[in-house]
Each structure stands twice: as structure tokens, then as C-alpha cells.
């Protein structure tokens, strides 16, 4: 009988990991980066699943994704991270334009076929679409459109993108656990009193009266929650409003979205958005790329700007601390899951988002040795 839960071996097995990279990480739309990071003449090296890509915007501003391999003799074009200017191969300096077509070739008389029809030598390209600022890539040739894939999350990402300004804080860190362990940890608040007793529990802002956040399962793959902000905190922002100004999308709760498989977007009241990308680096390790993105404030005074800087700075320190606590507990889960033989026990209500994720995973990826 098949189960809707992920068996423990699927979190530690290298064959399962390979199958995922060639399976769900090819079929799904993967979050790759933000349009606002690709402004001007620039490009970015990103690894998605087992594929290295180069991300850039074409002249019309549309994001495009290319295999990070030179058409000439297959050198890797760029290292992971951001780069200025056109894509230029480090080996013989072929330069590619924004559509991945060779733009200049040293000693071009030796390559008459490239000079005659450069578009025949364009870089291999992948499906690439954006929802607002959020760029997604699908490695498989065929599949649903991004809009169909994202379902109700498409509107959320578009709405969140209005007024997104600049990346204020960014880090990449390795967690010693399978990516599914890391995602599942992000999908439940049950561990918070135990793991984050010294951090989260002391933070202002979350309503204590309404213990239960609201869960939303509109889409088969994705989920989100909303947790009301407490009344004092909302009132505090109201009092500061004349100084800090207004921001484009204001809500009075904390929101946490998981977009299957590799993206979470969270925000408290909409004055900044925390964007995390989860990259499975091996069966038992995950690289997390975390960004805090600020929004545009209208009509802020100098004093108001200072206040927001403090709020942001506190937020950064808090994020790092929480991240370290989560990373440490995920490594312990990994140590256990390696030896576990029975299915996990999932709580009703509090762990519904974990269950939803496991069902989405089981639907997307066959499990080794299971019917
Ligand atoms: S391999 Fe890229 S220019 Fe030669
Ligand atoms: Fe946590």
C-alpha cells in the first residue's frame, strides 16, 4: 500500500537524492532569483538542482536562463553569484549578448560559420518566467506555465513585488540536513517554544491571545499561514506612521509562504520581505540563500528613516540567530532520520503544513523501493 508520507530513508539516501535532481527538480518551477538583482548590464550564476545556469535580463527586461556552458569548447561561463557586464567566457573570451547569442569571437576569421549565423551557436536556454520580481526556471522542456504552477501564490508574489526596493541583507549558509528536513522545519511552529525559547519567544509583535495561526492550502503543492500581529504592535506602528511614512502593501499579520519546492517568502506587516531559497547540495546538506528585501516608503521623515533602520537591524540580528538555531536542530534531525525505520508521527493542526508538503512530494517524486 502506498503512503502519503515520506519514509525516513528518502531523507538520507543518495539514490533518492539523484532521482529528485533528475525528477522533481527538473519538472518543477524553481525559484532562481529576483529581477531587482539583475538590473543594469549584469548576470548571475545560479545552481538549480544539478544544473548550473546563467541568469540575465534581455533588452526588453525579460529574465532569461541559459546553461552555464560555453558553446565553443564548453568551459563554465561564470562562477556562482553576481557579475557585471556581458557574459564572457574565461577560456577564449567569446562574449554573449542578452539573448545568449555570441556577440564577439576573437580571431573570428577562424569561425566563419559562427560569424555567418551566430544565432545557431546560442547558449542552451531554459524556460524562465517571473511573477512580479520573483524569477523561476523550469529545467524540463515541457510542463505547466508558471501561472498554472503557482496557482494562488502567483498573485501573492505579484502583490509582494509592488514596491520591493533593494536587498538589505543577504547570506548563504550550509545546513547539515536534507532539504526536506529544512523545509519541514520551516513549515511548523511546534518547535518554536523548544528550539527558539531564547529568541522567538521574547520577540514582540506576535499575538499571544490567538495562539493558532491560520493555514491556507489552496494549492496542491504550496501552502501559507497568517498569524495576527498583536494589537500593541499595530498601535505602535500607527503612532509612528506620520514619521515612517507609508508602504505599498500593509497588512496586520505575519505571513509565511512555501512555494514548492525551494522557496519561502515571509513578511511581518509588509514593511520588508524575507526570501529564502533552498538548494539541495547533497543528500544530507542544503545551502540556504537568505535575503531580506526592503520596500519603498513614501513620505518618511529623517527620524522615521532612523526608526526603520533600527527595526531592520534588529530584524537582521534576529534572523541570523533563529537561522543558527534551526540549522543546529535540523542537523540533529538528520542524524536521527538516517537511522529511523518507522514513519514520522504528524500532529493534527500544528503539523498540517508538513503533511501537505509530504503529500506534494510523494505526488511529485517516486520513492526508491516503494510501489
Ligand atoms: S571555451 Fe568558451 S571561448 Fe573557448
Ligand atoms: Fe525555527
From TrEMBL:
Query: Which of UniProt's keywords are assigned here?
Result: 2Fe-2S, Iron, Iron-sulfur, Metal-binding, Oxidoreductase
Q: Where is the Rieske domain?
A: 29-137
**PROSITE patterns listed in its UniProt record:** RIESKE (PS51296)
Q: Which SUPFAM superfamilies does the record cross-reference, listed alphabetically?
A: Bet v1-like (SSF55961), ISP domain (SSF50022)
- Give the family per the record: Belongs to the bacterial ring-hydroxylating dioxygenase alpha subunit family.
InterPro entries, alphabetized: Rieske_2Fe-2S, Rieske_2Fe-2S_sf, Ring_hydroxy_dOase_asu_C_dom, Rng_hydr_dOase-A
Respond yes or no to whether keyword Iron is given for this record.
Answer: yes
What name is this protein filed under? Phenylpropionate dioxygenase-like ring-hydroxylating dioxygenase large terminal subunit
Q: Which cofactor does it need?
A: Fe cation
Quick check: keyword Oxidoreductase in the entry? yes
Q: Which Pfam families match?
A: Rieske (PF00355), Ring_hydroxyl_A (PF00848)
Amino acid at each position: 500500500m502506498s503512503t502519503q508520507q515520506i519514509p525516513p530513508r528518502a531523507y538520507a539516501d543518495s539514490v533518492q537524492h539523484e532521482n529528485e535532481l533528475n525528477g522533481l527538480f527538473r519538472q518543477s518551477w524553481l525559484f532562481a532569483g529576483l529581477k531587482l538583482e539583475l538590473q543594469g548590464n549584469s548576470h548571475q550564476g545560479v545552481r538549480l538542482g544539478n544544473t548550473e545556469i546563467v541568469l540575465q535580463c534581455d533588452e526588453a527586461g525579460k529574465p532569461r536562463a541559459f546553461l552555464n556552458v560555453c558553446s565553443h569548447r564548453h568551459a563554465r561561463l561564470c562562477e556562482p553569484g553576481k557579475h557585471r557586464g556581458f557574459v564572457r567566457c574565461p577560456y577564449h573570451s567569446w562574449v554573449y549578448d542578452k539573448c545568449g547569442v555570441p556577440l564577439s569571437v576573437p580571431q573570428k576569421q577562424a569561425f566563419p560559420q559562427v560569424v555567418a549565423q551566430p544565432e545557431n551557436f546560442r547558449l542552451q536556454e531554459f524556460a524562465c518566467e517571473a511573477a512580479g520580481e520573483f524569477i523561476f526556471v523550469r529545467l524540463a522542456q515541457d510542463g505547466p506555465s508558471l501561472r498554472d504552477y503557482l496557482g494562488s501564490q502567483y498573485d501573492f508574489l505579484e502583490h509582494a513585488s509592488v514596491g520591493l526596493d533593494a536587498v538589505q541583507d543577504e547570506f548563504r549558509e550550509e545546513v547539515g540536513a536534507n532539504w526536506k528536513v529544512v523545509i519541514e522545519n520551516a513549515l511548523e511552529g511546534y518547535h518554536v517554544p523548544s528550539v527558539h525559547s531564547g529568541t522567538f519567544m521574547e520577540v514582540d509583535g506576535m499575538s499571544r491571545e490567538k495562539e493558532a495561526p491560520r493555514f491556507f492550502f489552496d494549492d496542491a503543492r504550496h501552502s501559507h499561514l497568517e498569524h495576527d500581529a498583536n494589537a500593541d504592535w499595530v498601535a505602535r506602528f500607527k503612532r509612528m506612521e506620520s514619521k515612517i511614512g507609508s508602504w505599498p502593501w500593509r497588512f496586520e499579520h505575519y505571513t509565511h509562504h512555501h512555494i514548492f519546492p525551494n522557496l519561502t517568502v515571509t513578511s511581518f506587516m509588509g514593511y520588508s520581505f524575507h526570501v529564502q531559497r533552498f538548494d539541495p547540495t547533497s543528500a544530507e546538506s542544503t545551502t540556504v540563500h537568505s535575503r531580506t528585501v526592503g520596500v519603498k516608503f513614501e513620505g518618511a521623515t529623517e527620524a522615521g528613516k532612523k526608526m526603520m533602520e533600527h527595526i531592520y537591524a534588529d530584524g537582521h540580528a534576529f534572523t541570523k540567530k533563529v537561522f543558527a538555531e534551526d540549522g543546529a536542530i535540523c542537523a540533529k534531525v538528520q542524524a536521527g532520520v538516517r537511522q529511523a525505520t518507522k514513519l514520522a508521527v504528524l500532529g493534527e493542526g500544528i503539523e498540517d503544513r508538513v503533511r501537505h508538503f509530504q503529500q506534494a512530494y510523494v505526488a511529485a517524486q517516486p520513492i526508491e523501493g516503494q510501489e
